[in-house]
Amino acid sequence: MEDHNHQTLPSDLTLRVKALESLLVEKGLVDPAALDALVDTYEHKIGPRNGGRVVARAWVDPAYKKRLLQDATAAIAELGYTGAQGEHMVVVENESSVHNLVVCTLCSCYPWPVLGLPPVWYKSAPYRSRAVIDPRGVLAEFGLELPQDVEIRVWDSTAEIRYLVLPERPAGSEKMTEQELAALVTRDAMIGVARL
Ligand code: FE
User: Fold this and answer.
1) Is residue 104 flagged as an active site residue?
2) How many CB atoms lie within 10 A of CB 126?
3) 157-168 pLDDT, tens per residue?
4) Does residue 107 carry a catalytic annotation?
């Protein structure tokens, strides 16, 4: 049985954050543009950068990769990424013949410690329903046309399990440092709507 009970928490939290934001803006204590910039930073930079470090470590360290695929929560915690919405992580590995795509069909379950805040489209009803019914069509809309012989596996995140895609290491990256590799990894590749 899937558990999305946490859904009541974010909505309550969202309301409280909104109320706080309105108050701060009204009192002239914060600039709405600065808040937007802050959210943008968490969505695009800080969060996914953590996931990128996990992926890069798995690419350069086979023993780490093995631990990551066996017990992602513990392996991710080794790098210091723990906390809310990351307690039960599962990492799924892309291969040339297998592509993994992550969705939360019921709400917006997402691995915050490694990806930050979910993008708006991830929470949208069309993505949540269509990722399951027509994953190939959804991926094409993201600009990812996969050959017919590539199997697409769709993973439904819940409060119980949060998925992260381990993308394939790009060709030609053999001489890159772990840090350089981490910078290659995009949020969308770790959700599975893009390849590297
Ligand atoms: Fe959910």
Assistant:
1) yes
2) 10
3) 988 899 999 999
4) yes
